[in-house]
Amino acid sequence: MPEHTFRLNGEQVTVDIADDVRLLWVLRDILGVTGPKYGCGINVCKACTSHLNGRAVNPCAIPVGDLDPTDEVTTIEGLPATVGAELHPMQQAWLDLDVAQCGYCQPGQIMAAVAVVRRAAEEGREITDTDLDGIRNICRCGTYVRIREAIRAGAARM
Amino acid sequence: MVNGEDRSARPPHGSRALDRRKFLGFVLAAPTLVTAAELVPAEQARADVPSADITELVDLNDVMTLAALPTSGLITVQVDTDGTVSFALPRAEVGQGITTSTAMLIAEEMDVPLDKVRVTLADARPELVFNQLTGGSNTTIATYTPIRVAAAVARGRLLEAAATVFGAALTEVTIRAGVVLGPAGRSIGIGALAEKAAAVRTQQVTAELKPAEQFTVIGTPQRRIDALDAVTGRKKFAMDLAVPGALPTMVCRPPTINGKVGPVANAAEVRAMPGVTDVVVINSGVAVRARTFGQCIDAVRALKVSWGPGTAQGKSDETVLQELKAAEPSLGLPPLTPSVEGKFTFHFRSNSALETNCAIADVRSDRAEIWSGLKAPIVAKEAIAAKLGLPLGAVTVHVTESGGSFGRKLFFDAALEAVEISEKIGKPVKLMWHRADDSRQGRTHPMATSRVRIAYAGNTVLSYKQRHTSVATDLSHGFGEIFTALAAKLPVADLGFSETFFQLSQSMPYNFGVNSRLLNETDKGFNTGSMRNVYSPDVTCARELLIDRLASKMGKDPYRVRRDFLKDDRSIAVLEKVAEAGRWGRSMPAGTAQGIALHSEYHSASAVLVEIDCRPETVGRPIRNGVAGPRVTKVVLAVDAGLTINPRGLEAQMMGCAMDGIALALTSSLHLRDGYFLEASWDNYFYTRQWNTPPELDVIIMPDTTGKPGGAGELGVAASMAAVACAYGRATGTMPTTFPINHGTLSFEPKPVVPPVPQSPTDGLDHAF
Description:
A: Ubiquitin-like (UB roll); B: 20 helices
């Protein structure tokens, strides 16, 4: 079976699995990293949103064979380490505003939020309502209003 | 000061009658302190949402609370040597925040810090009989007193143990923040007392509850106790559990609803696919087990199965509407007085949560163990034991945290299926439904019509009639047991489950003269279940829309007509509050409007004012693979849920209810064609998304006037849906009669039904941002 190696939350990992198995299943079923959630498997619900080399991606739509050994995959579990803290400012904002209800979508929401804020910062601007309207992550509990508040609060601390 | 003299746990004194605040409890024989609540004084059925109908005598929550009474005493609070207090809640946490509110009750009563209280979800406990069902927004109503009694007994025992340690009188000790303070500055943590306060034999004691005026935790805004786990990815749902040998498992399902599985042409070939360990025919399709879910998807897609017809073969929205029309009870002869009348259609809706139906099962010859998010775990356990032919004691059912419910988790379809697969292949399985399965074969809120007629003369309403006709709702697994047991006590004993539920959950908050409502059901061919707030969103939406029409005919303002006809003070107060806070009647541009609506249930009341923008440039704003539609720009929601345990949690529930109401009114439905639902994705089923979210949301919690908690987890859906519908009608000048309003436009390309699940894309890297 082909061997694949990439960096996951700061560590080099290697798995034996077919090339076309999507990264989500490699993370969850083989490596036991369960922060990224399954909600659709077709890159629609965004519950599995994670970062690849600092950009938001959806592991359900990435064959593991597409990864290079130096590619850095960051899941919600590895997010705090990217800022060298117990919690990323976005996670803290989520706590401060008590965003989560069932919590199932929230790892993906937070990972998407961080990327949206970074993108705006790279473009030298503040987060806009259009940015927030453009976030596709589903929350079936309907926490959207608090998510919007938390993203603005988290952005102020990033 | 609250000290031992005030509220110690004492052996009961002979036959002295218990006063209102004294309760009997237990100290159980155990290594550390374990206490239990035994008796809750039976309350009279409450009638705080007055109406000239059955809910005045008894409502759904009274039934559920009464059902819970005989066994509530079996809930236990344990003090551990590390100074924490543990409680296994016999309910399901599905996002509604009951583990947090439960921890608050215990922290309050015991005077321990909130973060020292550990609340877990109890395994299925058949001895609790009716007291392990999560539904009807009943958890806090039913458990508010028993949990506090158990905690109060524990507190009393800790005080007594500390007094002994200190050689002091009970009057000299008290608890502050989990530490017992004694004379001369002495102190001892409750952890150090956990063994000393334990009982060697079980004994009955009395306890007094803390008076409300001394509350310091109840009624204060608290963050969820599971929030840190949720935001760090540490919160474990069923599919996150590592059960040895439980490999990913999926089912290849039929192309039509409940289609019959026939021969499999290529089982051996699929069994040889990479990662696949098992392929087996089961009742609902063909199960595959593999190393990863990705390989399960590949296997499901590769299977060649012959399928027989399903239970809705050939049916479509149109044919079901005809069935409903044929089943509609008559509204009677037209009245001789002026009247307004309307017929409203509510299409099928999905109560699919973000976590799809799923369960882990490990079935052996002599025992079975199941892990799943279950709101009716006792019924699940009984059904599983019966299915396997095992004694009840050989089946262990663990209730896991749920990734949402919205009614779905009253049922245990995945648990039963996982058990069947595990038994057939003799291995543990981790069964997960694909999103497409969950949407197409999962339970739905049934299609319904509601006919309403209001007769009036001058400024008086003479009568209100509502005839609700619905595809049958399956309530059997959830509420059936309760109604069966209590039917004799109810004034509706001759009615079926659904009609009983309907009558008990619907009230008439307005002085509308002679009031009559009926439910008729037809067609049991669909996989149905109640969705959050059950009948109320549709029933209330129809009623409130027709009240707007009545107002127009009477030449009155929609707010004023509601205000004038409302019966009870709590309903009037919430309505007045949203009108004031939302500036009812303010001038708005053409194509935009306000709407206002009211709903009372669960011993609670709610009113919602929304503003909507239906201008073409808003409706037509570009959204990729989604529905834009009218935008609700503002929601003001006032809620009176009686005594609020956690205002922050209540606000969260009302926010979610508002998002549900927006979706129900505007965008979310299932389309039935040729015996199957077209929707197979969140980009087909348009639940509220960020681009539909109101930029302004104001939730106002009313001051408590009852001293008792009401239900709230579902309360706000009905008034939100109705207010959006009313606002839409006022903005466009046309009363909407079909919901959601965009149902007539199919806004996506339906996915194939064979194979039943779509392949995962491979272009994820192209969409990085």
